[in-house]
Specification:
heterodimer; A: alpha/beta; Hypothetical Protein Ychn, Chain: A; 5-stranded parallel β-sheet; B: alpha/beta; 3 helices; 5 strands
């Protein structure tokens, strides 16, 4: 059994990367592996917005990640620099940048790139979904 | 705990995508954790290192000078694929001057990838 972390850079809804990452995460947990952390970087951070409203008969990727995180106690971390520039902000970042609102889904956390390095230090494998 | 090695692979030309800059940020952060890091430039990624870039005329920040700082951050293995330079008719003199930059064969690059604990590319 191995410890995994995922690096997700795929733009949600534009490409299959996020969906593949969710399916990969579910499968590795089913097979008894550990998933330490999912780190969202580049366009991947866009999925951390709680304001996505896809059509009712399509998957809501944010909710799919959130369900996995809550049920399996997995850290979902979005890079602060990548997120801020793409309009994904939590309460603290909204205040710090004098923005009128915030949109980070509560299942996600905003943090720095150090969390990606730390994930590598503490995982056997890091799989990128771009 | 044994330090795990990371190979960061730059394989895209700059500015058309932000991959180069975002990988560079990962490299600089990972360097702070004292992990052995190799920066490998392959395919169109060799254009990341070309001297005299002026992306400011496109309103894009120039990150090419930051590559020169890699050795200061403790990243000393900076390797450029020879075949890629040849393919794009470039030579080492046309690249930004980085202490310790070396060119390597494609087969050397392949064995490097095979022996790295983590391979990162965007």
């Amino acid at each position: 059994m191995a410890t995994y972390s995922l690096l997700v850079t795929a733009n949600p809804y534009s490409s299959q990367g996020q969906l593949s990452a969710i399916q990969f995460a579910k499968t590795l947990l089913e097979q008894g592996h550990e998933l330490m952390r999912v780190f969202f970087y580049a366009d991947g951070v866009l999925v951390a917005s709680r304001l996505h409203a896809p059509p009712a008969d399509e998957i809501n990727l944010t909710k799919a990640w959130a369900k996995l995180a809550i049920e399996k106690d997995i850290e979902l971390i979005a890079c602060v620099t990548a997120a801020n520039k793409r309009g994904i902000v939590n309460v603290a970042e909204a205040e710090r940048n004098a923005l009128t609102g915030n949109n980070l889904d509560p299942a996600f956390e905003i943090s720095g790139l150090g969390q990606l390095t730390e994930a590598m230090l503490n995982s056997d494998r890091l799989i990128t979904f771009g | 705990m044994m330090n795990k090695s990371i190979c960061i692979v730059f394989n895209k030309a700059p500015y058309g995508s932000q991959a180069g800059r975002e990988l560079l940020d990962i490299a600089l952060m990972a360097a702070a954790f004292d992990m052995p890091i190799t920066a490998l430039f392959v395919e169109q990624g060799v254009y990341q290192l070309l001297k005299g870039q002026e992306p400011d005329i496109l309103d894009i920040k120039n990150h090419s000078a930051t590559f020169k700082a890699l050795p200061l951050y403790g990243i000393e293995d900076i390797l450029v694929e020879e075949d890629a330079l040849q393919k794009f008719n470039l030579n080492v003199q046309e690249l930004v001057e980085i202490d310790g930059l070396k060119t390597i064969s494609s087969s050397h690059a392949q064995s490097l990838l095979a022996n790295s604990d983590f391979i990162l590319t965007l």
